[in-house]
Specification:
mainly alpha; Serine Threonine Protein Phosphatase 5, Tetratricopeptide repeat; 24 helices
């Protein structure tokens, strides 16, 4: 680097934009993120400029800088059209992204020109620094970006929405973002025990108070109420949302999830088929259909046993077909591949399941959540289908040792604790030791290796 580049980089690091907020390549699945952003643009969501800005960041990380510039031009055009009166407040992040992309392209003069534009804008705000104005609009966009960047960013996203709402408590967009992040954090912690203690449920009610016609908020609130067995109000909200927005893809998605959880699988499938007519290439929707068929198959197996083997076989094939479509449409869709492998296991196709698990275990360029999900599912397969407690322990530990808060990591811990509870030997001691001393004591792991080796020897 020369002095000009070094000085420019110092300035760029002071900006508030995706390049200084979001996790970089090693922490996110870029292909997956790209697909989600493109889906939101294609579905004509309200906040396209936000998606184009984030997509520019992802394209730049993948080396597609020309595409990134086109994304930013689209974002700028939308902001000029939709927010003419407050354009300067809204454009700060886009100009910061422009500067970074041109820097990565080696076009330093262009990068500096956007820094100059930011400097002129920031003079309008009393508390702004030279290139950055920490105003509610910036905090709000930062909150959404972090919310969409993975579990590890949720708490910081929550802080951003809280800061933005301090100055503009009635902004619907930020209230929605705040409700979403609270819902996800509650789901991760599992600490919410009642309707009265749920912050996210109160927040979804606030969103609907601000905008009584927000049908996505209706179905989100319904899903929270469903968790607390408030079925009557939840059912009413879902029906109201479908009546008001019968063709809104995200309403159909969440309503289908509601009906699946309510065990009305036929209604869920009906809504998913309707959504697929609007989004025929949606991997997410195919995956959700597969989950519905899987639930249907499990219910039939439980009630009929082997009496209805023909119907069970058809449902297994329907599951496999949907999961296959999902991961063919989106090769980075790890959960769809894991669900496919699980169906193979249920159907006794162990070799096929092992083949998929082996391929997934070798993945390096995937996000921490995916790595944890893979090890959780492989551990369950080893424990319950291969009857290998030692291998189950091995994979649960691998997933748990990835220090990244997620549903899968928590489930790895739960499975380890269950094994420890049902054991009265040195294995139980070691499991508890490792759980409580993740960063330390080699002796725990060495003893565990010896004892698990004994288990394998004895089983032979």
């Amino acid at each position: 680097m020369n002095n000009t580049q070094d000085l420019l980089k110092v300035k760029l690091d002071q900006l508030q934009c995706h390049f200084t907020w979001a996790p970089q390549r090693e922490n996110i699945d870029l292909d997956d993120m790209k697909q989600k952003l493109q889906d939101s643009i294609d579905l004509n969501m309200k906040y396209k400029a936000r998606s184009y800005n984030h997509l520019a960041f992802v394209n730049c990380l993948q080396g597609n800088c020309e595409k990134a510039i086109q994304n930013l031009k689209e974002a700028e055009k939308i902001l000029r059209k939709n927010h003419e009166d407050e354009f300067d407040k809204r454009i700060i992040i886009t100009y910061g992204n422009y500067a970074w992309v041109y820097y990565h392209m080696g076009q330093l003069t262009e990068a500096q020109s956007y820094l100059d534009k930011l400097e002129r804008i920031c003079k309008q705000f009393p508390d702004a620094s030279r290139y950055t104005a920490m105003i509610p609009e910036v905090y709000g966009e930062k909150g959404w970006t972090l919310l969409n960047s993975g579990v590890q960013c949720y708490k910081e996203a929550m802080d951003c929405f809280e800061t933005a709402l301090e100055e503009d408590p009635n902004n619907t967009d930020w209230n929605i973002g705040y409700a979403i992040v609270l819902s996800r954090l509650e789901g991760l912690s599992g600490a919410t025990e009642s309707v009265d203690s749920s912050q996210s449920l109160r927040q979804w009610r606030r969103v609907l108070k601000l905008d009584p016609n927000d049908t996505e908020a209706m179905v989100q609130l319904a899903l929270k109420l469903q968790e607390f067995n408030q079925y009557e109000e939840a059912d009413r909200l879902v029906k109201q949302a479908l009546e008001k927005s019968p063709g809104l893809p995200y309403v159909l998605r969440y309503a289908a999830k509601f009906y699946r959880k309510a065990r009305n699988i036929e209604k869920a499938l009906e809504l998913l088929d309707k959504a697929l007519k609007m989004s025929p290439n949606s991997a997410f929707l195919y995956h959700q259909k597969g989950v519905c068929y899987k639930n249907k198959m499990k219910t039939l197996k439980k009630s009929q046993g082997s009496k209805d083997s023909g119907k069970i076989a058809k449902l297994i094939n329907d599951c496999k077909d949907c999961f296959t479509k999902a991961f063919k449409l989106k090769p980075s869709f790890i959960i769809a591949k894991l669900d496919y492998a699980n169906i193979c296991s249920i159907n006794g196709e162990y070799c096929e399941a092992e083949k998929i698990y082996s391929e997934l275990l070798e993945l390096e360029n995937t996000c921490p959540e995916n790595k944890q999900d893979i090890r959780l599912q492989v551990g369950l397969f080893e424990q319950y289908y291969k009857d290998s407690k030692s291998n189950g322990i091995k994979y649960f530990l691998e997933g748990f040792k990835i220090k990244h808060d997620s549903y899968a990591r928590n489930n790895c811990r739960i499975n380890l604790e269950k094994i420890a509870e049902n054991s009265q030997d040195i294995v139980a001691f070691c499991i508890r030791g490792i759980i409580h001393m993740l960063d330390g004591e080699e002796c725990f792991e060495k003893i565990l290796e010896i004892e698990c080796g004994k288990i394998v020897t004895c089983s032979r």
